[in-house]
Amino acid sequence: MDRKTLPEKPASHNAVLHRNSDERHIHALLEQLTTILYCIDPADFSAFFISPALTGLLGFQIAEWKGVPGFLFRQIHPKDRARVKRELRTAAETADNYRLEYRIYSKDRTRLYWFEDHGTVARDADGKATVLYGEARDITERMSKSASADNDDRRVRQCLEVAGVIVVAIGLDKRITMINRRGCEILGYTEVELLGKNWFEVFIPEFEREFAAQIFDKLIAGTLHHAQRHENTIVTRDGERRTIVWDNTPLIDDLGKPTGILASGEDVTEYRRAITELEASEDRLRVLFEYAPDAYYLINDQGRFADGNKAAEDIVGCKRSELLGKTVVESGLLTSDALPRALQLMERGFRQPIGPAEFQLTRKDGGTVPIEVSSYPVNIHGSRFILAIARNISERKDNQQRLLKVYKETIGTISRTIETRDPYTAGHQQRVAQLATAIGQQMDMDRPILEGLHFGALIHDIGKIYVPAELLNRPGRINVAEFELIKTHCEVGFNIVHDVEFPWPVAEMILQHHERMDGSGYPEGIRGDQIILEARILAVADVVEAMSSHRPYRPSLGMQSALDEIERGTGTHYDPVVADACLTLFREKRFSFEDSRPD
């Protein structure tokens, strides 16, 4: 049969072919979609159509899900299940469309997805829901980003909340759009109370309002570098003014336009107050330092003068500028004899307090001034210094010399008075003083101690003034009772002078000069270091002078006998160091008493 003569196909057949072709195209499109399309019976929530994307996303075959009542809810996360069921029922009953977000498990429950559903409710003529037509999209990635952003926002907010500074956002209308906890605390308001308030009108005092507003306007206009700091006052709820140092940055939207500023402010009120108080304190200390009666010198760790006060200028007779930067050696303030000791003390002075120590200070005009110096290690801004305090003791020295002269004259008078009652022992106390002083010098005792030793020796027998003269001057030996009476002169002498404020232990010297190292002496029988050193020296000097001199009850026993006695009694009766010094004086240095014996 010729093709041209073939009978034409019926129109219904062509329609079927077109329909089949459309179905193939639709099926192909459904295969390509990543969105799940579905039709659900609102009565039991069974699906009578699900697109192939179900398999690709959740791993189910369509046959496993299709037609099974409530199968959807088995896969939805338990925390979302009741909500989704409730919202679908509500939509079927009252709505034309719906939107859902929920979490759903894959078939093997190894993955959890976020789905977003958009659907429409089909109804019959009576308005009863017949079909839920919907699409389910995988929004897992979006929700993950959103959760991450939420976490970031939450972390940022937490950082703002724990920040120790004010953080405030101010919109273009100059009203507060955000403020952190510290800002609320400082201002004295809750966050709710602060949001929306005009920052400049409410919290900036009028005298600074224009300045602060200019800063804001320049930041918004981009004419002020946002890193530039500024400081202004804010007023709190109770009217207190606080000083804040601000760092500002403009807030810019996605189009690059400013929407306001973000400012962080550090409350420096207490710091500024402390600085003010410190400056006032420094001013007060500077006045005290400058006008102190003693000379103050500040010496750095290189041994150079770093500062001084007015008294420091007066005592040396030159301006402090002439001393600054010079060492003690370069200054010429001390003699060459005093320098070694001064430098040694200075070296120790960086570690510990020193003094007081006495020096002769050389003035610029060549004169000398006796000074007493104490020093203290100090730390100023991390650097080591010595604060040396020098006191002019010229007047004290003069007074001491006058007082010493009075002491000498008084003690000399007393000594001569005592010896006029006892011509046989005339000069005894002077000779004991000579020997005691020589022993002290041999022992390298300091000059002030030697002076006290000398004066104590001059009146060590003052208590004999209460012993009857006839007993002291009687030739021949005395009995036990008479000796006991003579022995009381130690305590009597102590009682006479113990109320006199000597600068030396004179009363103790008088009381103890007959004590012995082994406790065999009198009046108290003390021993060893219980006896003061001066009394131990007097004990030796007294015995040597007494044995080598004539007495009413016996002739002189001679110096050799006296020295033999000291040698025999070393360690038992006499201090070994004192005894050795005495023997050295006579045997090696040829000591002899000056002629103070009566004619």
Task: Provide structural commentary.
The model is unreliable at 1-7 (pLDDT under 50). The protein is elongated, with a radius of gyration of 56 Å. Helix 21 crosses helix 22 (533-547) and helix 22 packs antiparallel against helix 23 (559-569). It is of the alpha+beta class. It is 46% helix and 20% strand. It has 4 domains: 18-143, 2-Layer Sandwich (Beta-Lactamase), CATH 3.30.450.20; 163-272, PAS domain (Beta-Lactamase); 296-392, PAS domain (Beta-Lactamase), CATH 3.30.450; 397-587, Hypothetical protein af1432 (Orthogonal Bundle), CATH 1.10.3210. The longest helix is centred in the C-terminal third of the chain and has 27 residues, at 394-420. A hairpin with a 5-residue loop joins strand 9 (241-252) and strand 10 (258-267). The strands form 3 sheets. Strands 2-1-5-4-3 form a 5-stranded antiparallel sheet, sandwiched between helices.
Q: Please, what is the CATH homologous superfamily of the largest domain?
A: Hypothetical protein af1432
CATH class of the largest domain: Mainly Alpha
CATH topology of the largest domain: Hypothetical protein af1432
**Mean pLDDT value:** 86
Domains (count): 4
* Cα end-to-end separation: 192 Å
Uncertain segments: 1-7
**Total helical elements:** 24
Shape: elongated
Total count of strands: 15
* Largest sheet, strands/sense/barrel: 5 strands, antiparallel
Strand content: 15-25%
Question: What would CATH call the architecture of the largest domain?
Answer: Orthogonal Bundle
Strand order of the largest sheet: 2-1-5-4-3
Helix percentage range: 40-55%
Radius of gyration: 56 Å
Structural class: alpha+beta
